[in-house]
């Protein structure tokens, strides 16, 4: 199983190599099970309200992940996004999985927190990328759905993580493992610390602690 903040298109190469039985993508906004797909999107009403506040913030990069692709208010070649200048109107009637925000303002996090609706929350990834999602879209909710579908108990699971989105699964799974280059909050909650993910720390941990047993 895999649980990631990334969209499905970003992990297809790993899925082809490993063949995951189930995948939680976009922090639980889209959960792919053996016989079903679950979606926990932001309501269009909430999305449009939040975007109406974001567009008046200066020097703010805004993107939305949707079931029809990713749209941004500037070109982002590495994301292969579609440039869209129509915010706060939504670019599609498809599912709105995430609103992604970054900018130069030192108060961006506080500004985002002040415009959230009752059914949304935000996390910060890679130190500076704000992700706004439905409160139902969490990695832990996705993991619970995958475990139930595959008839696996939480106590049997080993979870590896490195960022804010990983703290809850590290706490809740049977064994929580942070990699050495994880944020301090994730390391503090982990049962074990593996080597850096830049040095195949997860693979070495699995070889030493799981495959060898």
What do you see in this structure?
It is built from 7 helices and 13 strands. It has 213 residues and is α/β, with parallel strands linked by helices. The longest helix has 12 residues, at 139-150. The relative contact order is 0.13. The mean pLDDT is 93.
Portion of residues in helices?
25-40%
What is the CA–CA distance across the termini? 20 Å
Q: How are the strands of the largest sheet arranged? A: 7-6-5-8-10-9
Number of helices: 7
Mean pLDDT: 93
State the secondary-structure class: alpha/beta
Order of helices and strands: EHEEEHEEEEHEEHEHEHEH
Rg, Å, rounded: 18 Å
Beta-sheet strand percentage? 25-35%
Shape: globular
Largest sheet: 6 strands, mixed
Report the count of strand segments: 13
Poorly predicted ranges: none
Short description:
By secondary structure, the chain is of the alpha/beta class. It has seven helices and 13 strands.
Q: Any chance you could write out the topology, listing elements then pairs?
A:
Blueprint: E1 2-3, H1 12-18, E2 23-25, E3 30-32, E4 37-39, H2 44-54, E5 60-66, E6 69-72, E7 82-83, E8 96-103, H3 108-115, E9 120-125, E10 129-134, H4 139-150, E11 158-161, H5 167-172, E12 175-179, H6 184-189, E13 192-194, H7 201-211
Parallel strand pairs: 1-2, 6-7, 11-12, 12-13
Antiparallel strand pairs: 2-3, 3-4, 5-6, 5-8, 8-10, 9-10
């Amino acid at each position: 199983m895999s649980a990631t903040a990334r969209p499905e298109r970003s992990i297809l190469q790993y899925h082809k190599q490993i063949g995951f039985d189930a995948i939680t993508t976009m922090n639980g906004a889209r959960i792919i099970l053996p016989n079903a797909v679950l979606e926990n999107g932001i309501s269009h009403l909430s999305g449009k309200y939040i975007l109406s506040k974001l567009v008046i913030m200066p020097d703010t990069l805004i993107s939305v992940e949707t079931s029809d692709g990713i749209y941004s208010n500037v070109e982002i070649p590495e994301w292969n996004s579609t440039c869209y200048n129509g915010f706060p109107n939504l670019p599609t009637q498809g599912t709105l999985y995430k609103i992604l925000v970054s900018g130069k303002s030192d108060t961006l996090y506080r500004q985002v927190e002040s415009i959230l609706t009752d059914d949304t929350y935000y996390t910060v990834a890679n130190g500076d990328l704000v992700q706004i999602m439905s409160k139902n879209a969490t990695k832990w909710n996705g993991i619970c759905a995958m475990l139930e579908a595959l008839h696996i108990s939480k106590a049997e699971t080993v979870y590896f993580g490195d960022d804010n989105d990983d703290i809850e699964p590290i706490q809740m799974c049977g064994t929580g493992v942070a990699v050495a280059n994880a944020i301090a909050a994730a390391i503090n909650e982990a049962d074990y610390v593996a080597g850096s993910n830049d040095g195949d720390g997860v693979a070495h941990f699995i070889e030493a602690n799981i495959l060898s047993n």
